[in-house]
Design brief:
Blueprint lengths: L4 E6 L5 H15 L2 E8 L10 H13 L4 E8 L2 H11 L4 E6 L4 H7 L2 H8 L4 E5 L4
Parallel strand pairs: 1-2, 1-4, 2-3, 4-5
Organism: Hymenobacter nivis
Pfam families: Usp (PF00582)
Family: Belongs to the universal stress protein A family.
Length: 132
């Protein structure tokens, strides 16, 4: 498998820096472009866009050796927007964080990573956050 484009969706949770480090290491090892994407869901419309956070994460990815890093923010439901971005960018791989929701919480709230895994046009690597 040759990687030329890696998509890494971010939710700015506590696990985000580790996820970016993981994706950046993959990009550095393969020479692939790394796209950091934040999806602003409708319920987050009043929250700040996160441009400063994305800029800091881009810098961290570059410092970790990722050769080409770009960022983007889109508005909408997370899973469909991530899948659409993977298609638009012709991503070879999606690197997404897992939050470990199980049972009733996952049933009621849905699980973005699970939907992306089932519907993405490319392989998806699910990265678990380290145990606290």
């Amino acid at each position: 498998m040759i990687l030329t484009s890696i998509l890494c969706p971010l939710d700015f949770s506590a696990a985000t820096p580790g996820l970016v480090a993981y994706a950046a290491a993959l990009a550095a090892a393969t020479g692939a472009e790394l796209r950091l994407l934040h999806v602003r869901e409708p319920q987050d419309a009043a929250a700040p866009a996160g441009a400063d956070r994305l800029a800091g994460l881009r810098l961290a990815a570059e410092q970790a050796g990722a050769p080409h890093v770009s960022t983007g923010t889109v508005q909408g439901e997370a899973a469909p927007e991530i899948v659409a971005e993977a298609g638009r960018r012709h991503a070879d791989l999606i690197v997404i964080g897992a939050h470990g929701q199980t049972g009733l919480t996952r049933f009621l709230m849905g699980n973005t990573a699970e939907v992306v895994l089932r519907t993405a046009p490319c392989p998806t690597l699910l990265v678990r956050a380290p145990a606290a």
